[in-house]
What we know:
Layout: E1 3-10, E2 13-16, E3 21-35, H1 43-50, E4 53-55, E5 58-60, E6 62-77, E7 80-99, H2 107-144, E8 146-147, H3 151-180
Parallel strand pairs: 1-6, 2-6, 3-7
Antiparallel strand pairs: 4-5, 6-7, 7-8
Amino acid sequence: MSLFFRTCCVALTVLSSPHAVADVRLDTRTQHYDIYPTSAADIRLQLRKHSPIIDQQQSFHGQTQWHLVPDFRWREYGNACRFHHINVTLTGAYVLPRLANTSETDADTRETFARYYQALRVHEEGHQALWLEAGQRIETLLQNMHGQQGCKALTEQATQQIHQIIDEYHQRNGEYDTTTGHGRTQGAAIR
């Protein structure tokens, strides 16, 4: 029960351009919410009390949101079409707890929280790795697509396949949470 994953958005941009560029760009930021435990045993209660992450009336300690934007442009060569500009951008935002009263807490509390936070971060970065893999698959797909059916049909085909990849990675992220117990098997648990 320590983590929650949500993908925010997927947008597709298709334009006509003559330059071939392929790059998966990654941009992440972290937003913290403060907790104020008085002991190591109090960390769990503080996480429940102060977490802003609620889904279906359940509180979670961490969250990752991803915005995956494949941008591709094409060029016609007679009856053939090929994508020339490919730019996949993956923007992520983590929401994680922060020990706000470090000067008022004992070493045991700080060390317990630090271990927990590191494990929680590792778990969240596992979600990032999956979405980065999805972005790379989309980039490779677009680099290898070309066809005789015209640019509109090729763009529709690419869009459909991109959505299939995204659906697959939504499922894989859910399986990742199930397999790891939302990070518990990776140490993201307060006992």
